[in-house]
Structures are given as C-alpha cells and as structure tokens.
Design goal:
The complex is a heterodimer of chains A (about 350) and B (about 350). Chain A is an all-alpha fold and about 350 residues long. Chain A has 14 helices and two strands; from the N terminus they run αααααααββααααααα. Chain A has two domains: about 290 residues, ABC transporter involved in vitamin B12 uptake, BtuC; about 40 residues. In chain A, strands 1-2 form a two-stranded antiparallel ribbon. Chain A starts with a helix and ends with a helix. Chain B is of the alpha/beta class. In chain B, α3 crosses α11 and α6 packs across α7. The chains are: A mainly alpha (about 350), B alpha/beta (about 350).
Chain lengths: ~350, ~350
C-alpha cells in the first residue's frame, strides 16, 4: 500500500514538471559549451571532470532525504574536513590507508549520529544544531591539524579518482551512480521513504499514523554523516593532501543542488532523480563556463541566478497565467451579463 | 464553469514555465559570452609538436591568481601583459572568486582541456593542486608557480618576489635610513604565529646583535593581528609606553597603514617614524603628508614580466627548469634558477615621495 502511494507521489511530482528547469539548464549549457569551444565536447574528459563534483553529489543525495523531512544539515562540509583530518592523522601514525579510510567513514557517521541525537532525541531544531556543529566540527579539524597539511598518501590511493571502471566510467562517478540508485530506491520504493515524505508533509499526523518520524530523521542525519565520511575519502584521494580548510563552503553548494533539483526546502516534496539532474546541470554550466575562461565570480553569480530563476519563474508564470485567465473570465462574464440584460 | 477553468490552467502554465525557463537559460548563456574575454582559440593546430619547434607559433599562457579583484595580482597581470607582445604570447587570466584551497583546480583542468602551452599559478594550497598540475605537466604544459612556492612535485619552477632570507637585514637598513641610524624602535607585527613575520623579526634581531647598528635598539614587538583596529590600538599603546620612541617598524601592510594613520593625526607626526612593508596605494597619502619617509615592498609587476619570460623560455625549449639555468629578462636583468628550482625576482623596492607615483597597487 505504502509503495503504491509513494509511487503516486513520484508520478504526480514528475507530472508537475519539477525536472524541467534542471534538464533545460543542462541542455543549454551543453549546447552552448559545444558551440563556443572546440575543446568542450570531449566526453572522456568531461566524465573525468565530474570527479570534482562527486563529493558534493554524494552528500546531496543524503541531504535530499534530510530536506524531504523538513530538516537541514549544514555541518556536512565541516564533517568532511574533520573526517579527512582524522584519516590523515591515522595514516600518518603508520596505519594502512584502507583502515584510515574506514576510520574516516566511521568518524563521519558518528558525527552524523551526534547531530541526529541532538535533533531527534532532544527535539532541537536542525538548523540551529547543525549551524553549531558546522563551527564545532570545523574547529575540531583545525585543532587536529593546526596549520599543517597531511601529505604523502600512497601512490595507488592518490589519483584513484582517475581510475576508469569498465574502461570508461571514472571511479567517483561510479560510486555516485551506485549511491544514487540505492538512495532513490530507499526514498521512492520503500515504506521508509513513504514515511519520509509523510513526515515532511505533516510531522504530527505522521506520528499518529504508526510511522516512526524520529527513526527516519535519525537515520537521515546518520546517513548524511556517512556520506560526508565517504566524501572525505574521495576528496583525499583526489587532492593527495589534507588541510583543515578542506571542503570549505560545500554545504551551500549541496543545498543549492538539492533545491535546484525541485526538492521543497520546507519538506514533504522532492526526489533523488531531481537532485541527480540538478547536479549534472550545475556540472555542465560550470564546465561550459570554465572552458570559456569565465571567472569565478561570474560563475558563482550565474549559478545563484539560475537557482533563483528556476524557483521564481515557474511560480511567476503560473500566477500570471491565472491572472490573465481570471480577467478574461471576468470580461466573458461581463459580456454574457450584458447580453442577458 | 470556474472549476473547468481551473483545470485548464495547469497544462498552460506548465508549457509557459518550460518556455520561460528555456528563454531565460538561453538569455543567460548569451549574456555571459562577451564577459568571457576569450580569445577565440583560433590556433587549434598548435599541437605539442609544433610548439616544440617553437618560434612562429603563438604561445598560449593561462595565469591563475589566488583570487580575482586583488590589485596585487592585477599588477602581476600588468607585467605579464607588458612582456607578452615581444614574446609572441597570449595571456588569459582566469581564477576563482575566493582563495579556497581547491577553487583553482577547475581552471587547471580547463587549461589542460584547452591544450595551452603554459600555466602560471599563484597557488592557494601548496599540496592540494599537485595532482592536477602533475596531469598538466604530463600533457606537456609548462607549469610555473608565481609569487609563492608550492610542493615541488606540482611545478617546474617557482618565482619568488624577493629573497625572504635577507628581508630581516633589509628592514634594519630601512629603519636605519629613516631614523638616522640611532634610537629606540618597536616592531608592530601581524599575528604572533605568522611564520613569515616571525622569521623576518628573527632576522632583524640577528643583524642588530651583530653590532653593525650599535645605536639602534629594538625595544618591543607587538602584534596587531593584521586587523586595522587592533593595529591602531597597539600603535597608540606603543606611543604611550615609549615616550622617546624614534620609529615603529611594521613588516605587514595592514600594520604599517594603521600605524601611519595614527601618527598622521598625532602631534608626534614626524618625530616618530613609521616604516616597514606597505603597498604604494595604501601609503601614498602618508608619504605625501610627511608622516612616512619610506616604506618598501616587492614589485609584483616585475614578477609578471619575469614569469612571462620564463614561460616562453620553457615552452620554446631555450631553457631547462634546472638549478643553474638562467634567463635574461629585459628590464629586470639576468636571473638564475637556484638549488630549489626557484627564481628570485629581485630586491624589495623602496617607495619614497620621489617615486611613489610610479606604482599602482
């Protein structure tokens, strides 16, 4: 029963055209990039370049669940920094890179659990709690590393982001695709996911409907922490070094992508597919601008503008249409009135 | 009637929303084209083989500053652009909005994709850029770090603005010059943990201890944390604590500007000298109103000129990125690659009332 219902939500959501902005932005960016630079449309290179965005993408998958609940997790970027810092210190102490990576994922997950406990057990607002842990986790990373960098990671680990699965799919992208399918299934095809949407729509009602909102939210924050831990490993493999300012500002990019993907910031509505499409739309825009040597400020401004417009334009247009129809209806009504009289 | 109307509204608005979004997106793409100051890559045939033989081909260079909108790096760009025409070189400047550790990687990757000949970069992180810059070098692109060094694996050469090991001595000479080589002076530094400043102050102490300036005494070192308000407070505190002070020496641009500002409005103006490391634009008014006799800094424009010539030499194969190699740069002189594969631009420039208007940064 729950399955059918959640399937219905997805269908309705899709029917509303929530994916259109991301698809349009993606298509325009790809066409424009191809037309304006002979170097742009090089698929293997573009696929490799996606590696820079997959850390953000993985966290965005978890953030989609968090936001569907009506929560937010602003601590993710700081979590990445602290998890990576611990990974670096563990590796530096002579322990193997595989164990160090596992420790990073564990640390990230625990930081997520800590958020979840404060929010679900103590009933504190997620915005306030994660604003606090944003500063706390970053501070812990700074204490752990000071102004030093951890370097000297092993050769096979550094640069593993360039490894091609099946000869064409870069490793980070592969990880992301697997994660996206799993999270998509969880959100849209299980009772758990059904509960998530219900909880975001009406937390009180869901509580009295035999659902477990506390469990869902706790799991989402834990998962968010887990993804931050995974992202910490990926980013370390990509950069080959760790510093306490790692991933600075990532949380805003993550929230931007989730919202751009049509997930309602107030919860109850959203989809994993939307987040995936939005991520690739942002990648396409950034890459098309970079090949044109467009500067960072303009890129940032443009991404911000696209976000505002994709939210505002559909609303503005539907308001305008309904107003036009209202006035037309009114004049029609006046006409008929006049004829009757 | 009303119900029916409402139902017909939905598909309409959907269609319009799609159209509007598409239009906006296309419009955006269109708007941003002219801002991209791209020199439409016409020389697509300039592949590695052609570059190696050198000469006729245009050398395509990308410079990635720490961040944009910073007058200091604008002057490096000015130097690059001054040297470029003589070297048959095009310069693209592209960079991030913030000086974040990983924000420059996107531009390195794009430069590799564009198959440029050389990447000049003022790195935001000594290590995080190494994997991307390694890929650039593997693709046959010359990579030079400009204004600061980084992990040697990530670049072929590094251009440093000045020989930092001699800066302590230089600051003592500057102090001697403005005080008449006698009196008590205090140092207003950045933060107490700033590694550069601490290194230079240590250098100053060593020179003073060697006895070459017997009448100069360093009486105190205070820290303004590179914050204008704290630097101002510390300057006022120094003036109260040491009534006979002859100079405040600030080896940081924020500190020297704050100290000069305090003294320009003080009755002690002209009696207590202010000197140190300052930018001409920040210090101009204090030099003109007589508060400050001289400050010094390195010249970023000379670095830009040197960077352009080194890039050309590496791309043309007229020079190897190895210790002992040298390049002769018109207007700068002959520069030799040192044992750390660094090239030092030159001594600091001292700005006085006579020359300050020649500089803009």
């Amino acid at each position: 029963m729950g399955r059918d219902f959640s399937r219905g939500i997805v269908k309705r959501f899709r029917a509303q055209g929530a994916f259109l902005p991301a698809i349009v932005v993606f298509a325009v960016a790809m066409v424009w990039g191809t037309v304006s630079s002979p170097y742009f449309l090089d698929v293997p290179i573009l696929l490799l370049h996606t590696g820079r965005y997959m850390e953000i993408g993985l966290i965005a998958l978890a953030m989609t669940l968090v936001i569907i609940h009506g929560d937010i997790d602003l601590s993710v970027a700081s979590n990445v920094a602290f998890s990576a810092a611990i990974m670096g210190l563990v590796y530096q102490s002579g322990i193997s890179i595989a164990i160090a990576a596992a420790v990073a994922v564990l640390v990230g997950t625990l930081l997520g659990v800590f958020n979840g406990i404060l929010i679900t057990l103590l009933g504190l607002p997620s915005l306030v709690v994660t604003l606090g842990t944003l500063a706390l986790y970053r501070g812990m990373a700074q204490i752990a590393l000071g102004d030093q960098a951890v370097t000297g990671y092993p050769e096979g680990f550094v640069g593993s982001d360039q490894y091609l699965v099946a000869g064409f799919l870069p490793l980070p992208l592969t990880v992301f695709i697997v994660a996206a399918v799993a999270v998509g299934f969880l959100a849209h095809r299980t009772n758990f996911g059904f509960g998530s949407f219900m909880l975001g729509k009406n937390a009180v009602a869901s509580k009295f409907s035999g659902l477990r909102p506390g469990f869902n939210r706790m799991l989402a924050f834990t998962f968010s922490g887990f993804m931050a831990g995974v992202a910490a490993v990926l980013i370390t493999a990509r950069l080959g070094s760790t510093r306490s300012n790692l991933a600075l500002g990532f949380e805003l990019l993550v929230v931007t992508i989730v919202v751009l993907g049509g997930t309602d910031i107030f919860g109850g509505k959203g989809s994993v597919l939307g987040t995936v499409l939005a991520l690739f739309a942002v990648i396409a825009v950034r890459e098309a601008l970079a090949i044109q040597n467009v500067n960072g400020q303009i890129q940032d401004a443009l991404i911000g503008l696209i976000l505002v417009l994709t939210i505002a334009v559909p609303v503005a247009v539907s308001r305008l249409v309904s107003r036009v129809q209202m006035s037309r209806r009114k004049s029609l009504l006046d006409d008929t009135k006049g004829k009757i009289q | 009637m009303i119900r029916m109307n409402r139902e017909t509204k939905s598909p309409w608005s959907k269609f319009l929303a799609l159209g509007a979004t598409a239009l906006v997106a296309i419009g955006l793409a269109g708007c941003s084209t002219p801002t991209s100051n791209s020199t439409e890559s016409t020389s697509t045939e300039s592949d590695a083989a052609a570059d190696a033989t050198a000469g006729a081909e245009v050398i395509e260079v990308v410079y990635i500053p720490k961040n944009l909108g910073n007058p200091y790096f604008d002057n490096i760009v000015a130097g690059l652009e001054e040297a470029a025409p003589d070297l048959n070189m095009t310069i693209e400047v592209v960079g991030p909005a913030q000086a974040g550790a990983t924000d420059q990687i996107q531009y390195i990757d794009a430069a590799i994709q564009q198959q440029v000949d050389a990447i000049l970069i003022s790195p935001n992180d000594a290590d995080a850029l190494v994997p991307s810059l390694k890929r650039a070098m593997e693709a046959g692109i010359a990579v030079i770090s400009v204004n600061s060094d980084m992990n040697v694996e990530g670049r072929q050469l590094a251009i440093l603005p000045v020989d930092f090991t001699t800066l302590g001595e230089f600051l003592v000479e500057l102090t001697a010059e403005v005080t008449g080589d006698s009196g008590d002076f205090a140092v207003l530094s950045a933060t107490s943990t700033a590694p550069d400043q601490n290194f230079w102050i240590e250098g100053m102490r060593e020179v003073l201890a060697s006895g070459s300036h017997p009448d100069l005494n360093l009486v105190d070192v205070v820290y303004g944390d590179d914050a204008p308000d704290k630097s101002t407070n510390e300057t006022n505190a120094l003036l109260t604590r040491y009534p006979g002070l002859s100079a405040i020496v600030a080896p940081t641009t924020v500190g020297v500007a704050a100290a000069a500002q305090v003294l320009s409005a003080s009755p002690l103006k002209g009696e207590v000298q202010v000197t140190g490391l300052g930018t001409p634009n920040e210090m101009r008014q204090y030099i003109k109103d007589g508060t400050v006799k001289a400050v010094a800094l390195w010249d970023p424009k000379a670095q830009g000129i040197l960077a352009a010539h080194l890039a050309a030499a590496l791309v043309n194969g007229t020079m190897n990125a190895e210790p002992g190699a040298s390049v002769n740069v018109p207007g700068v002189g002959e520069r030799v690659v040192n044992d750390d594969t660094q090239v030092i631009t030159g001594p600091p420039v001292t700005f006085t009332a006579d020359n300050i208007d020649d500089f803009d940064f």
